[in-house]
């Protein structure tokens, strides 16, 4: 749940790397739900401008960089068991061991994950979720989607995200999972708020740029998604 939420938000940061890119109407990869996606994207933009943006400004004004980094580390540490389980499901024992070891070290020596002691000991963070396990099983990505509040995804990734959330809610309780996911999402958004604002201001078609960025990122982590990403490379051209 939380890991996928955080990943989904961080994917938007890739769009900021394409600030100088503009969409080309031709030769874009299929987007059968584009009309609905664009409406949801517009809704998300409104939420960002009217709610999330002001919240982020308050968060930055009332916390120190060290406190923000510690909170981000602690939330990331909570995701390590999900990473371990997903790694095992994908047959990647080394990744699962790395995540389990990180969780043990950071939960103790790292003061509940506030400090990333595991990285200094040779266990770097390697995000991996249920969606990545499905990719390892060669489950097709399905069509591109934009989720309310959560942003860009695909049918496969969204299904994995909601399945993870449901499983965690069953195990931990819905109140805990809601608080965890909300905090994780807000902290993640705080890290990309200004870059995303620049993207919205400077791009002729922010939706197309974010779609391309999402597909490129997923193609980098899920090789079977590369055909769709290659077709969509034409969705952004230099000015």
TrEMBL record:
Pfam families: MlaA. Keywords: Lipoprotein, Signal. Residues 220-239 are annotated as: Disordered. The keyword Kinase does not apply. One of its GO terms (cellular component) is membrane. Residues 230-239 have a biased composition (Acidic residues). Residues 1-28 form the signal peptide. GO terms for biological process: intermembrane phospholipid transfer. Belongs to the MlaA family. This is VacJ family lipoprotein. It comes from Roseicella aerolata.
């Amino acid at each position: 749940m939380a890991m996928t939420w955080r990943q989904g938000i961080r994917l938007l940061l890739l769009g900021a790397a394409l600030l100088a890119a503009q969409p080309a109407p031709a030769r874009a990869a299929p987007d059968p739900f584009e009309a609905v996606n664009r409406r949801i994207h517009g809704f998300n933009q409104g939420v960002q401008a009217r709610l999330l943006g002001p919240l982020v400004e308050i968060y930055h004004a009332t916390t120190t960089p060290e406190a923000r980094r510690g909170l981000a580390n602690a939330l990331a540490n909570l995701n390590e068991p999900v990473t371990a389980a997903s790694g095992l499901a994908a047959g990647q024992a080394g990744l699962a061991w790395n995540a389990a070891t990180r969780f043990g070290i950071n939960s103790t020596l790292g003061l509940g994950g506030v400090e990333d002691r595991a990285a200094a000991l040779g266990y770097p963070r390697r995000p991996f979720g249920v969606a990545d396990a499905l990719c390892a099983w060669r489950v097709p990505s399905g069509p591109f989607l934009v989720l309310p509040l959560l942003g860009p995804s695909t049918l496969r990734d969204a299904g994995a995200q909601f399945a993870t959330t449901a499983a965690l809610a069953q195990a931990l309780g819905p109140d805990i999972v809601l608080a965890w996911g909300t905090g994780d999402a807000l902290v993640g958004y705080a890290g990309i708020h200004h870059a995303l604002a620049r993207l919205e201001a400077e791009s002729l078609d922010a939706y197309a740029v974010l779609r391309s960025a999402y597909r490129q990122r997923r193609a980098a982590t899920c090789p079977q998604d590369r055909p769709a990403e290659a077709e969509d490379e034409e969705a952004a051209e230099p000015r």
